[in-house]
Design a protein that fits this description.
By secondary structure, the protein is mainly α. The protein has ten helices and no strands. The longest helix has 43 residues.
């Protein structure tokens, strides 16, 4: 077969392939248009959803900042001189109740945003400060069961503190052990173990506390938690230069 013939055959094959494609497109023109329309509509929906989400996130961020300002408002004792125009609260509980309402509004209105999720956690904290323990527990459990592991760990740590305050040490111990087994960036295992040892000390169980401190010291000798554990085991030892506990 000469070169000219081979080129003619290739040309014919290309024409056949192109013709086949044209015929298929013609036969499936309506489905293709329909698919294209659906894809285009979905793309528009995604873009609109992203714009709406960003707008809601911005509103949530602003509202969260305002709630945090309330939460950080100074507390002034009766008769204390306060500069003109400076807002104060008489007690921490009063301040917590005011901030709590703001955090709840954000969490309920913008719950899918980062600020909304964070606001629910702070709602749990302010419930504790306001003395509303039942609401605090249910709110913090909701945060602890969420997808954000760091925020969930913080909520568990707050729950453990609430359990201790309300005489439920056994539940607090379970939480500390869970946090130790499932550490996160926000609550490393060492932090949970230090809290567990502190609980044992408060229960007047020094030997159990020492056991936790010893394990922590061996696992994390050069880390902050390990150095604190070493200091607890040997209170008379002065920290060496660089923060290392002298042995």
């Amino acid at each position: 077969m000469d070169q000219q013939t081979r080129q003619a055959l290739k040309h014919d094959q290309f024409i056949d392939t192109a013709q086949h494609g044209l015929e298929w497109a013609s036969d499936n023109r309506r489905p293709l248009i329909l698919i294209g329309s659906i894809v285009g509509a979905l793309l528009i929906i995604v873009i609109i959803a992203a714009v709406v989400f960003n707008q809601r996130s911005e509103k949530a961020d602003i509202a969260f900042g305002e709630a945090m300002q309330t939460y950080q408002t100074p507390i002034a004792a009766p008769g204390q001189q306060v500069p003109p125009g400076v807002k104060t609260f008489a007690t921490a509980a009063e301040r917590a109740k005011a901030a709590n309402q703001g955090f709840l509004n954000i969490a309920n209105s913008y719950g899918m945003t980062s600020s909304g999720k964070l606001a629910r956690y702070f709602a749990g904290l302010t419930y504790i400060e306001a003395g509303e323990n039942s609401q605090a527990e249910s709110t913090l459990k909701e945060v602890a069961g969420g997808w954000n592991s760091d925020l969930g760990s913080l909520a568990k740590l707050a729950l453990a503190a609430l359990y201790r305050q309300t005489g439920r040490d056994s539940q607090a111990i379970e939480v500390y052990n869970d946090l130790t087994a499932h550490p996160s960036v926000s609550v490393p295992a060492g932090t949970a173990q230090l809290q567990l040892a502190d609980l044992y000390e408060a229960e007047n169980k020094p030997e159990m506390a020492k056991k936790v401190y010893a394990q922590l010291k061996d696992k994390d000798a050069k880390g902050p938690a390990g150095m604190i554990a070493a200091q607890k085991l040997n209170p008379s030892a002065a920290p060496a230069p660089g923060g290392v506990v002298a042995q």
